[in-house]
Design brief:
Number of helices: 18
Distance between the termini: 129 Å
Largest sheet: 7 strands, antiparallel
Helix content: 55-70%
Structural class: alpha+beta
């Protein structure tokens, strides 16, 4: 960092830390006298040649470059940012933030302060340049962007990358920020000194290079394998000794087995002698059973002879039964045939009856058609006569009402309607010149202006709109969509903009408070539940990025300042008038919630409001606050702004800074007042506007009366014209109806004259006679079929009686045969057993 003198480091805004001293390496004695052109000024591959910081820890902006060939040192008192640079080296090359003992999340590295606009930064970056990291003659630039939400974005040589790829690249250049032999932060020195020899050797090998470490690992693995093989050989030798002992015990078991086999052979020899003795006993039993078998065989032959004689008797009976069954089937078939002929004859007779009915229906249809034609002619004649009479009566009425000239009456009615309409339209055009909208709008506008002059809330809305033009639109949306047109319902879910709920009665406090409140906080909205916050954020997204409104969700409902905070009364001797949260006037029902929100967003409980007298006593005030245990306090005076704090690093020394009050666009947001001269001027304008509106309203009422009278005149003329038209239309309708009836009458008379009813009936009469004759023939055939059916039924009954007798005889003979079969079977079983 030898070139830091060209680009000095910038700590937090307003802070004044001691300067950092850059100590170059002392030259070697051998190279002291060498000219600069011959001295070696090169870097090793992977050496850091440049580091650039933005909003990183204690720095808002800094850039350091290393002098090649030299030992670069950074020297300075505690709290000046040395450890911040070391931390940036580790984090910027993919190392864990925990390795520096400076926190456990990257979001904590964002600079804790405010910029020149009073805005606290929410993101930062670290850019590191490594010598020939991208190849010969090409340096590698690694950049890390981060924010307070612990989000990280990595870039290598300007291209998007990832932390994993950055770590892989560092490993390829043997850069190990987690190895104390390469990178040793001051907070890790104690742990480094307590490392075991084995761990120290391992880290040393890693620092030398991956090959040495890999070879060491291979030796460790080989040593473990050798120990395992020795243990296995010892186990095998022990198993061999055990097996030899077991073999000696088994010799006795073999001797007992051989003796057992000899005893088995002797037992088999004795079993052979036992079979001869059994044979002699069984031979005598065989001779007895053979004699018994021969006796039963003779009985069986006798039973078979009886069965043959009985079988010869059964065969004729079976033939008789079969013949009877054939006769029964033939008779049954004859009966079914006769039944079918009877059914067919009856069906033909019914069809002929249907045909006769159709012929009768045809005769009736002819009579009905003739009657319909004659009725149509009579109806038309009666209708024509009635319509002609009605037409004569109506013509007489119209002639009497309009003097006999209907056409002239219609023309006069049309002229009257046209004249009345022209007069009405002309007067309606005059009415357009007496519109009251412009005058009423002017009156409302002046009334709104006067109301706004006397309404501090409305004046605050104007001030909020000056800070952010989107505030009125978002506020209207909250009132209509979230609150449904109710201010109370809207406030139950959303508070905003926050300026509307903050009042400072003291004029001196008003000017001081502007330095504490960012415009972003005063124009923000506070959602009182999660659902409303999501709904409002969705609406802001829909409106687009130009709507720069901030929505917060603060879960705290009560406010409590720091327990170490002294009272403003105790600091009155230093020129202090009040803490900012004490000076604010807020509605009682909202005070706790609003102050809790302001404490979270801007630390409202850390601002002191003071008079110019505090400038000369500022050191004493700072010492008093330190003794009370209160840090991070901002003192607002009319001439300067003082900030008391403590360094986040090293020994956490006390710090202080001061600056001139800044000019803000919202300087008048807390000092809204009523303009009485403007109010008096507007009241005069309102009086004149109301007088003009009343005069215009009277003139319009006179024109409206004329329009109403002309409208009545037009309606009366239209009524007379409609009545005349209705009478004319009725006469024309009657004449047209008579003409249509006459046109239908002649064809109807011709249809009656041409309708030959006798000729049409003659055909239906012939069809009726033929149907009756065919039905009679069918009935005669049905009677003959009935006689044949009765004879077949008699024959069928006789056959069934004969079949029943034959089946009874056959059943008796078969029963006797079954008894003989059972007897023969018993004899065979007895013979078989013998």
């Amino acid at each position: 960092a030898n070139s830091c003198s060209e680009r000095p480091l910038r700590p937090a805004a307003g802070a004044q830390p001691p300067p950092l001293l850059i100590m170059p390496r002392v030259r070697d004695a051998d190279t002291e006298d060498e000219p600069p052109s011959q001295r070696r000024r090169t870097h090793t591959k992977g050496t850091i040649v440049r580091i650039k910081l933005r909003n990183f820890m204690s720095y808002t902006s800094a850039e350091l470059t290393a002098d090649p060939g030299k030992l670069n040192c950074i020297i300075g008192p505690n709290g000046t940012g040395k450890s911040s640079i070391v931390c940036a080296m580790c984090v910027g090359l993919g190392g864990p933030i925990k390795a520096t003992e400076r926190g456990d999340a990257i979001g904590g590295c964002v600079h804790d302060g405010v910029d020149e606009n009073g805005v606290k930064p929410t993101e930062g970056s670290v850019e590191t340049e490594l010598f020939e990291g991208s190849g010969a003659g090409r340096n590698l630039v690694v950049r890390l962007d981060f924010n307070t939400d612990n989000k990280e974005k990595w870039f290598m040589d300007g291209e998007p990358s990832s932390k994993k790829k950055v770590k892989e690249k560092m490993a390829s250049m043997n850069i190990q920020v987690d190895n104390p032999l390469q990178f040793l932060p001051q907070d890790k020195v104690g742990a480094f000194s307590n490392m075991s020899p084995v761990a120290l050797l391992k880290e040393t090998e890693r620092a030398i290079g991956p090959d040495v470490c890999a070879q060491h690992e291979e030796l460790v693995v080989a040593d473990k394998e050798l120990k395992s093989m020795k243990q296995s050989a010892a186990g095998e030798e022990k198993s061999l000794v055990e097996l030899e002992k077991q073999n000696e015990v088994l010799y006795a078991d073999v001797e007992r087995w051989n003796k057992y086999q000899a005893n088995l052979k002797e037992l088999e020899r004795c079993e052979g002698k036992k079979l001869w003795l059994a044979y002699d006993a069984e031979r005598g039993e065989y001779d007895r059973l053979n004699d018994e078998w021969k006796s039963k065989k003779a009985d069986m032959k006798e039973a078979e002879a009886e069965k043959k004689a009985l079988t010869d008797k059964v065969l004729p009976l079976k033939e008789r039964v079969a013949s009877a069954k054939r006769s029964l089937a033939s008779s049954t078939e004859s009966v079914k045939k006769n039944e079918a002929e009877m059914a067919a004859a009856v069906e033909r007779s019914e069809k002929e009856d249907d045909a006769a009915e159709e012929a009768k229906a045809g005769l009736h249809k002819v009579d009905k058609a003739l009657k319909k034609l004659t009725d149509t002619v009579g109806e038309l004649e009666r209708r024509i006569e009635g319509d002609e009479e009605e037409l004569r009566v109506e013509e007489q009425k119209v002639s009497v009402a309009y003097g006999g000239d209907v056409a002239a009456a219609k023309k006069a009615a049309a002229d009257e309607v046209r004249s009345a309409r022209q007069e009405l339209e002309a007067r309606e055009d005059d009415l357009a010149n007496y519109e009251l909208g412009e005058h009423e709008g002017r009156v409302r506008s002046i009334e709104d202006q006067i109301a706004g002059l006397g309404d501090p809330m409305r004046l605050k809305q104007v001030e909020a709109a000056k800070m952010n033009s989107a505030v009125p639109h978002v506020g209207k949306w909250v009132y209509e969509q979230v609150g449904g047109g109710s201010k109370e319902a809207a406030e139950a879910k959303v508070l905003g903009p926050m300026l509307l709920y903050l009042d400072l009665p003291d004029k001196g406090h008003q000017k001081l408070a502007v330095q504490a409140f960012p415009a972003r906080t005063l124009t923000s909205f506070l959602a009182r539940d999660e659902g409303t916050r999501d709904q409002l954020q969705d609406e802001l997204k829909r409106r687009g990025p130009q709507t720069r409104i901030t929505v917060f969700r603060n879960r705290a409902k009560t406010f409590s300042p720091s327990p170490n905070r002294p009272s403003s009364a105790d600091m009155k001797r230093f020129g202090v008038t009040a803490w900012l949260d004490e000076a604010l006037r807020i509605r009682d029902d909202l005070r706790g919630e609003v102050l809790a929100f302001l404490k979270q967003q801007m630390g409202v409980d850390t601002y002191l409001l003071a008079t110019p007298a505090a400038v000369g006593k500022i050191d004493a005030l700072q010492q008093f606050l330190q003794q009370s245990g209160m840090t991070g306090v901002t003192v607002l005076t009319p001439e300067r702004v003082y900030r008391f704090g403590r360094s986040k690093y090293g020994a956490r020394a006390a710090t202080s800074s001061s600056s001139l009050p800044q000019r803000h666009r919202h300087a008048a947001c807390f000092s809204v007042v009523v303009d009485t001269s403007r109010k008096k001027e507007l009241e005069g304008q309102l009086k004149e506007a109301r007088k003009g509106l009343e005069l215009k309203r009277k003139e319009r009422q006179a024109v409206e009366r004329d329009v109403g009278q002309l409208q009545q005149k037009l309606d009366a003329a239209k009524g007379r014209q409609v009545e005349l038209n209705n009478n004319t239309v009725r006469l024309n309708r009657l004449a047209a109806r008579i003409d249509q009836a006459k046109k239908r009458l002649d064809p109807a008379r011709e249809s009656v004259a041409g309708f030959n009813a006798d000729a049409q009936k003659e055909g239906y009469r012939r069809r009726l006679c033929d149907a009756h004759q065919r039905s009679l023939d069918s009935l005669q055939k049905a009677a003959a079929a009935v006689k044949r059916h009765e004879a077949a039924l008699t024959k069928l009954a006789l056959v069934r009686v004969g079949l029943a007798a034959a089946e009874a005889q056959l059943a008796e003979a078969e029963g006797n045969t079954d008894e003989l079969d059972e007897r023969i079977a018993r004899l065979r079983r007895g013979a078989g057993g013998a």
